[in-house]
């Protein structure tokens, strides 16, 4: 599969670097700084999920597409929760994979990832290093929570639908579990809102989505 993918992507004009196990994948990422990562879940030494989790924890925001033979919805959720941007189940069409790669590359350069830092109320966010503080004290936000906040902030005072959040943050246009967004919003409010039950910054727009107000 590696040989086939390499051949097809090089034919399309991409430069391809291959890592044969999870540890090598981490090293290659920091050494070559790729524009996008195709990451198989079943890797020797470290699984793809562990690699993805490690890279996100280190502040790597490179788009990651998970490749796996697993088709269970729960496995997809785990992949997305640890920071993957998209998820492709084997066997897959090379044309579909190429289309998903192009979509992620467009998304990575269309402004969604350009915000470096932001302050509101007593909250300070550093999107480059994935660091956050409230009232001068560090708060623990996951990479997904950072990306969700970034998306909302970039659309400040605009209504952002759940589907739009899934598209821009999770990288899937029609991902079926919109409840995932609500769960992340609830956790974010616990961390950044003075009164999570009466939020002042992440506002619910009934039946539509959310709006950020500084």
Q: How are strands sequenced across the largest beta sheet?
A: 4-5-6-7
Radius of gyration based on Cα positions: 18 Å
Give the number of helices. Answer: 8
Give the overall shape, derived from the CA principal axes: globular
Q: Which CATH top level class of the largest domain fits?
A: Alpha Beta
Strand content: 15-25%
Mean pLDDT: 86
Tell how many strands the DSSP assignment holds: 10
Q: Could you name the ranges where pLDDT drops below 50 across 5 or more consecutive residues?
A: none
CATH superfamily of the largest domain: Response regulator
Domains, number: 2
Question: Major β-sheet, in short?
Answer: 4 strands, antiparallel
Structure, described:
The strands form three sheets. The chain has a four-stranded antiparallel sheet, with no helix packed on it. It has a three-stranded parallel sheet with strand order 1-2-3, sandwiched between helices. The protein has a three-stranded antiparallel sheet with strand order 8-10-9. The protein has helices at residues 2-11, 22-32, 48-57, 73-81, 94-109, 143-154, 162-170, 179-192, and strands at residues 37-40, 64-68, 86-89, 117-120, 123-126, 131-134, 137-138, 159-161, 202-205, 209-212. The protein is α+β, with helices and mostly antiparallel strands and 214 residues long. A hairpin with a 2-residue loop joins strand 4 and strand 5. 29% of the residues are buried. The mean pLDDT is 86. The protein is built from eight helices and ten strands. The chain has two domains: 2-109, Rossmann fold; 117-212, Winged helix-like DNA-binding domain superfamily/Winged helix DNA-binding domain (Arc Repressor Mutant, subunit A). The chain starts with a helix and ends with a strand.
């Amino acid at each position: 599969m590696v040989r086939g993918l390499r051949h097809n992507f090089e034919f399309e004009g991409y430069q391809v670097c291959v890592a044969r196990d999870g540890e090598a994948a981490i090293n290659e990422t920091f050494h070559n700084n790729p524009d996008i990562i195709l990451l198989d879940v079943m890797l020797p030494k470290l699984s793809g999920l562990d690699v993805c989790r490690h890279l996100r924890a280190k502040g790597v925001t490179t788009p990651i597409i998970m490749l796996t033979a697993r088709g269970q919805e729960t496995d997809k959720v785990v992949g997305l929760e640890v920071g993957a941007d998209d998820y492709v189940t084997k066997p897959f069409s090379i044309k579909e994979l190429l289309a998903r790669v192009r979509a992620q590359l467009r998304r990575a350069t269309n402004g969604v990832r350009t915000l470096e830092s932001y302050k509101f109320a007593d909250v300070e966010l550093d999107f480059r290093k994935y660091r956050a503080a409230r009232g001068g004290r560090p708060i623990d936000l996951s990479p997904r929570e950072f990306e969700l906040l970034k998306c909302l902030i970039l659309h400040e005072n605009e209504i952002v639908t759940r589907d739009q959040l899934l598209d821009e943050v999770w990288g899937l246009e029609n991902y079926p579990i919109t409840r995932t967004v609500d769960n992340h919003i609830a956790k974010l409010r616990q961390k950044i809102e003075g009164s999570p039950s009466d939020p002042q910054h992440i506002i619910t727009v009934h039946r539509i989505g959310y709006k950020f107000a500084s």
